[in-house]
Sequence to fold (1536 residues):
Amino acid sequence: MRKIKVCVVVASRANYGRVKFLLKALQENVDIELQILVGASLLLERFGKAINVMKEDGFEPNKAIYYTVEGETLITQAKSTGMGIIELATAFDELAPDYVVTVADRYETMATAISATYMNIPLIHLQGGEVSGNIDDRVRHAITKLADFHFVATEKSRERVIRMGEHESSVFNFGCPAMDVIASCDKSISNEHMKKYGGVGSEVDWSKPYILMIQHPVTTSYGDGFSQVESTLNALQKFESVQKVVLWPNADAGGEDVAKGIRTFREKNMSDNFHFYKNFSAEDFIRVLNNAVCAIGNSSSFLREGEFLGVPAVVIGDRQNLREHGENAIFTNYNEEEIFKALKKQIKHGRYVQGRVFGTGDAGKRIAEIIPTLKANLLKPMTY
Amino acid sequence: MRKIKVCVVVASRANYGRVKFLLKALQENVDIELQILVGASLLLERFGKAINVMKEDGFEPNKAIYYTVEGETLITQAKSTGMGIIELATAFDELAPDYVVTVADRYETMATAISATYMNIPLIHLQGGEVSGNIDDRVRHAITKLADFHFVATEKSRERVIRMGEHESSVFNFGCPAMDVIASCDKSISNEHMKKYGGVGSEVDWSKPYILMIQHPVTTSYGDGFSQVESTLNALQKFESVQKVVLWPNADAGGEDVAKGIRTFREKNMSDNFHFYKNFSAEDFIRVLNNAVCAIGNSSSFLREGEFLGVPAVVIGDRQNLREHGENAIFTNYNEEEIFKALKKQIKHGRYVQGRVFGTGDAGKRIAEIIPTLKANLLKPMTY
Amino acid sequence: MRKIKVCVVVASRANYGRVKFLLKALQENVDIELQILVGASLLLERFGKAINVMKEDGFEPNKAIYYTVEGETLITQAKSTGMGIIELATAFDELAPDYVVTVADRYETMATAISATYMNIPLIHLQGGEVSGNIDDRVRHAITKLADFHFVATEKSRERVIRMGEHESSVFNFGCPAMDVIASCDKSISNEHMKKYGGVGSEVDWSKPYILMIQHPVTTSYGDGFSQVESTLNALQKFESVQKVVLWPNADAGGEDVAKGIRTFREKNMSDNFHFYKNFSAEDFIRVLNNAVCAIGNSSSFLREGEFLGVPAVVIGDRQNLREHGENAIFTNYNEEEIFKALKKQIKHGRYVQGRVFGTGDAGKRIAEIIPTLKANLLKPMTY
Amino acid sequence: MRKIKVCVVVASRANYGRVKFLLKALQENVDIELQILVGASLLLERFGKAINVMKEDGFEPNKAIYYTVEGETLITQAKSTGMGIIELATAFDELAPDYVVTVADRYETMATAISATYMNIPLIHLQGGEVSGNIDDRVRHAITKLADFHFVATEKSRERVIRMGEHESSVFNFGCPAMDVIASCDKSISNEHMKKYGGVGSEVDWSKPYILMIQHPVTTSYGDGFSQVESTLNALQKFESVQKVVLWPNADAGGEDVAKGIRTFREKNMSDNFHFYKNFSAEDFIRVLNNAVCAIGNSSSFLREGEFLGVPAVVIGDRQNLREHGENAIFTNYNEEEIFKALKKQIKHGRYVQGRVFGTGDAGKRIAEIIPTLKANLLKPMTY
Fold:
């Protein structure tokens, strides 16, 4: 029997963290021929070249494509999407997959969805149906309407996708494959293990308390990134005795603003117990998150992986404010004082009970198992 | 008070026919500064360069952009979408509109929607919520999820858009602006009036009975265009005494197949009362449709304008088979014999009573009036 | 020993005619692995889809790429070049050739040259050093300065390339590979053989006298194509008793103008012994050229293949007016009367003695033989 | 009288340094309407966003375009060129200049030259005819063959351009406009003046001796950037008591390699009297160069501005090894020991007599004066 060709597009380090266990499960499935297409920020030095981590993990991409138009303004984000479609069309034409798999809601995801749609290749979408209360929502839902099959991460997401007119039989809630990484991995941390990460700033003692900060640009308030990150950093600085581990933002429009805010702060506050990193491997990120006394910023990982692990989190701004979440998170605005109070409260509370809103840690395996049984219908009639 | 800048993207002759009265109404509205952006097949000789008709009608485009990657394969359709996004982003950046208006469901529409979304410009979508039973559906619904405001053409479309999670207050059913053209125009036809259209083949006597044929490629059965159009043409040939007026297909993937089928047939059957046209002005198309004894093919105009006018129609294949429709249409497959029978039946039936499924002919005016009152919210929360 | 990978880019039917025997020779050379990359108008229905002829001749392309931005204005020609570079870079990256071969002077050639240059792949240029007195000259000479090796077609071209600063050892005059086709092929013509070509217009009796017309747009007088081709057609019409065989123009900016001129003339003069063709296979084109009583227009083939065969030619306008040529050609401007006189004179003169300005018909073989001995130096120092 | 529209494309900080006085002269010329088009790395945060300096100098760009495909591999350099052509074509179409001005030899220059050529806009090229012994040469000479007018910087360059077949009357040697900046500016340096530049590393005392280092990637030895820059930095480190001022490399393929080499070195040697800068304004760069005890690396500014000023320079590798130069430079390979010796020798020698190989400092003014008198001929016949 001919193997089913499944092409997974991985276009950022965050994407990779989410699909790693799915890639493994697809690789091991005898009915499936896995095709890996890597692109965009996953390949770029400036974003930690996560492709290298991926290769070390045993995933050799079939194709690597570059389509990021540099600039990090709104116009370059649009143009990057256009370039993505142009480049992906060539790759899909040559790989001729039976299914294309895309994850989440960023411009790379949209480029993948559009290209697969016009190439008449059935599209599998991971993490549809979620609601985060920011502009990514419309992109995520648009991709749902382009996709043939939906592997959602929560029950509410499943309901939402179905209400949007997708057939119940095409929507599967196996949880988020990012939880698979957490469920299976060693979550302990040590200086020995972490010393491979250079970073800039004073040295971290991973056996001592630290706060983890990740703050991405918010595309709807484009231009405010600088002041937003400044508030967070100022609030953090008040916890003088606690170490602060800061990750660089992603490549959205506005990314340079946030990065500049961090750089400016860093130059002024070099000695203040702050440490700056480009990225960690997916596994090491879990170690870092799991052992933080608190996570702060606007990374969706705080509400997902953080919930699964029970890590206290302070979530700032409206980037995630409607996203489904468990008990571990407190929400706040960009006010320095409020951020400070929320942080204090969470540090006092300490560890939460582990949640299962985002699945039980076997999503990748279950998705891989069901793919060979799918039957795509390009006409995909709506249910109403 | 600052005028509201409304940028309408017109990218095909079909699009122009639909927005003509909206353009007029926007042009006349004192609170609005109309920006017109033309592109793709509207500019191309091969598709009748409808831009010229538009200019004669008094619409001077602010920008004309070329982004059709020639080839009419799936891959060039994808690449054209990518190029469209790249080119539109530049245009939107320079025109800086308050709203972008896009129509229907083709790749040019998708390019417009994506580009406006990433440029953070509120998007107004015309003709969302419809269901046609073909692959355009998923594109149309995806655009609905990207759009801020929806001017739908029927009540069922309105319901569908709302069920997809759009706020009731953002969805307006003023009918289809294409009906405006029909309601207001002189619908009579004469040889005198029509002689300006050259065409290829024997001469048409417009005062005598004729059948109108329009058959577009069907993207899901890519590669079958040739045989599909052949069946229709063969069936038509059996009505020896009736004149046959054939329009060239649009620029979808597969367009060349259909065009080739027509050319091949034409070379063999030059004398058989067939006449071939590239295109008509929007008004003249209505004359031609209105006075046809029957319309045949798969143009959605048969179910829309045709219904409004009461013209008998034979609709072939699955391109339109789920589309909302009135009494005037009979549906059939690609079988020559069945097409023949349906045609015979419709010719015998003659004229239908005029329908109002697609509005009352004042959509353009009503849309233009309401635009200055809209309040966009880029976060656009879902209703569930 | 590792085979040397030679990638030939073929992007129009004219290109194919020129490299056909080189492709054969490369295919047969045991030291060489031939890679064929096809693109642009070679793939397009509108230009006769010459890729099909190529496949029938036994050449299976490694990759087919689309990059023609439709429009045939100056801006689309520029954008097509840009798209060409983008698409070719991907293809070169995957094929990883040791040499890229490109032919002549059109925008597809430039795209190939630029892409190979930035990908650090040594470039072999065919037909450099010629001077045609039109805007293609600057493109051709620019490609010479980008290329590593030059296989020129005439002695004067060789001198010119060397004077431009290229090392003598990198310039080879083996003649034009297009002559190879002529030297080896059956050049007779018959109705039996030619009936496969449909064409539009009255039927040709290939055993009787006919004039061959090919008129391409001239990019420097963009916009005049219509009237230019009209003069030629009017002059031709005066030779009532002689058959006229007309070929469609190529895809340069202005191509639609010329095509429209031909179409307009055709519609008015359908019965006047004119016959219109999209294209012929490279071999059949030679038959048609060889047996014409005279060739007229501005195709460079008249000065090259025509000279080799001794066919009388009337060359119109400045598209070729500085090009090297033999005895067979008379030059004229766009004046109908002068064209008429020149035609009359040439028809009276009849056949010329065969010339050897463009080689002896074994270029392909000699080029293929020498390629494995080449040593590229990316620094390519100038000789002065 | 209609003003002549002259569009200068500025696409990197180096470009800006070279054309600044030309821009001023064009701005002041009553017969000329200056159009400024900025793009590529000039706009990017990562390369110091030199657009801001330009605006402060009173130059408001007509258009800013983004076309850098991020990645800094060979393939992204090719794709950036393609994107550049696509974006520039739109800009040229809208600005409709009478002349396009482009500078030097990088991929942005090539994109400008190609786009102007296909848009039929006469091209003015600055700094043609030079020979640097690296891969930029072929790009520079190809641009010469595309250009209509040549403003070269040296007498030898003038001779070379003419030998390549350009008409003597189209080639002008007014010297390099970069010298204009030097001739006119205050070249003194002080801590007060320089404190606005942040930089990373220990603080510089500008009144004390310092060595200036600039090392760009060398595209022909792609991949070696890391070790190459390491040798230079190691050699520099031996001059413990002298301050070292290091500038970041440009955006060529390989740029990330060199940048990484610098970052790695920096992290290990933070305290060693090294100071790292992103960029200086054109004027401040001259101060920095003028007051250095020695310049080291492979920047062409050492051979041009350095020669004009008489600054001792050690030029490493083959990036500049054939470039015209004066007395002030010693050439060396990538060997740490040899670099060290050359540096020692130059520091001992001290200041050279000022040279005039690259002009007398009034190039911009003279170019601006002559432009209104030019007569372009798109056919541009070769001289042989």
Observations:
- The mean pLDDT of chain C is 91.
- Chain C has two domains: 4-177+361-373, 191-349.
- The CA atoms of residues 216 and 277 of chain C lie 14 Å apart.
